[in-house]
Amino acid sequence: MQKQITEANLRLLIDSLLLKGQRVVGPRQSGSMVLYEPLASASDLVTDELPRRSIKEAFFPVCEDLLEYRKEGQQIELKDIDPARFPETVLIGVRPCDAAAVPVLDAVFSWDYKDQFFLARRAKTTIIGLVCTTADDACFCTAVGLSPNDPKGSDLLLTPLVGGGFLVESQSEKGEAFLATWQDRFSEPDGTQTQALATPALQPFDLKKIKAWLDDHFEDPAWDSIAVRCVGCGACAFVCPACHCFDIVDEGSEKAGKRRKFWDACGFSKFTNHASGHNPRDLQPKRYRNRIMHKFKYYDDKFGQTLCTGCGRCIRVCPVGIDIAGVLEEIQEK
Amino acid sequence: MTQTIDISSYSTITDAIRSEARRILSDSTVSAVIGYTAGRRKGSTQPIVITTADDADQLIFTAACLNDLVVYLTKAKKDVPKSGRIGIVVKGCDLKALVGLLGESQLKRENLYLIGIPCSGVLGSLLKPSAELTTETIASKCCECSDQLPVGCDFVPTVTPAPLPDLEKRYANEIARLEAMTPSERWEFWKEQFSKCIKCYACRQVCPFCFCEQCLCDRNRPQMVEQTPRPSGNTAWHLVRAMHLAGRCAGCAECERVCPMDIPLNLLNRKMAKELKELFNSEAGFEVRDTGPLTSYREDDDQSFIR
Description:
Distance between the termini of chain B: 47 Å
InterPro entries (chain A): 4Fe4S_Fe-S-bd, 4Fe4S_Fe_S_CS, Helical_ferredxn
Largest interface: A-B, 45 and 44 residues
GO molecular function, one term (chain A): metal ion binding
GO molecular function, one term (chain B): iron-sulfur cluster binding
Keywords (chain A): Iron, Iron-sulfur, Metal-binding
Radius of gyration of chain A: 21 Å
Protein name (chain A): 4Fe-4S dicluster domain-containing protein
Oligomer: heterodimer
Shape of chain B: globular
Number of helices of chain B: 9
Strand content of chain A: 15-25%
């Protein structure tokens, strides 16, 4: 279904949602950064900047409690976290490179084990995507098979119109239901032209060719030359909308504490450290190789998709200037 | 008013680095040279390790050469070849870190060939690597730099850096602002800053002085510091980091530059440096010292802080 909404009505819609007690999360200024955070009012919404961190944390927070324990004498009390307490949420202003990562995460969090924490939040969330009209030189969605107006992952997709306002397209039942609930705020499309799309500079990669090379170059001197500079932090993985590794730890005392799930990264030296002390990925190039392999080979082998949406965040934050798009170009030319 | 900073010498410096790297690689003075090379995006750079004279032309020096390459010499970076003598490109701030590591017996001077940069300043951030170097975009560390010309290197291009225009002393001003706060206001400031931390450890990984093979904060049997990115664990991590660097940090400010969450980490380091200067008249420099201010004991040490 196609509808149209003015800028003013979109803001009114957000305020109406908030007034109803609905949780609305969108890009907002948070100190020196723009982050996806709960909006306190429609005026908080920022629509001209890609948030520093991705939307994955709406379903997969930086850190969350899994259970609580308490021990008194021989009595042990365990308290589960009830996923029913996760609030209904509307995510608004989500960039296509972020929204597209959500189905990618769905696949992995509902594969052999159903992650109730991820899936419960996911079921209670409506995603309103926002088409990009500007890109910087780190953006490369078009190079990995997506586009600045890709509807993947969005329940509703907003496309900025020339002269203001947005074209609204529903992409799912959730989107249809949302349009029906708030129909007063929308109008029929009047044929106003949509704004020109952003144009990331990179040409599409031949992802099949890249995967074919990865398929038989687990050992290759290129990994050393590419990754010798990697210092082994988790910045790339943490800002990535698709990276989803986590660790689980019990924190507290012998008497009481919590079991917590928190982001982990394959760049960390301890990531594959065995209890025996042996570490199969003992050097940084082996860890960086895993990052590329996971994104462009292993995930594809398993789920038939690429674990990268070209948002460019890892390129922007890498302390040592590692540019994943440059790495892919290098592999493609082999 | 924003003023452009004169970096016209950087092309001469690039040429000089290339010819020196070519020379020391072809006559086998060194087995490798660690320097900077251009990245894919306009203006971007990345560290590079070259091992043949033919690759010398890949080296560059621009205002986007921010990295403190000294981190690659530490034992934390096992992947970088340590055999034979290694050439490395250093700015004044980087050299002070290297000198600190020499003092801590982490490096041997005879195993290094130092290519010093007469530096006119670098950008504060690489979010826009093609940005022009101005009084606005220049790194905060450069605004308070008195070490534009490194001392004690094996090779320094014969270029005199243009004197920097008058720059606002951003760290000194911000520290003065924080010092004027009440302890509870200051605690609120840092609580908010640390709450942003996502424990990516970029600050640790780029730090030349964070060379511990087993970081206390990674331990889980037993857990010494809460690992999760939550207020208590974050605060503990940043205090451990600041204290472990006190009297050692040379001020390259890489921790702050690479923080993806914009935590002003170098403020902690600068505050420590200020205390060290006031208490022990000690500061990072170009002269190798066997002991640091906090690793030596003197009868006349100021003890007035013990109350």
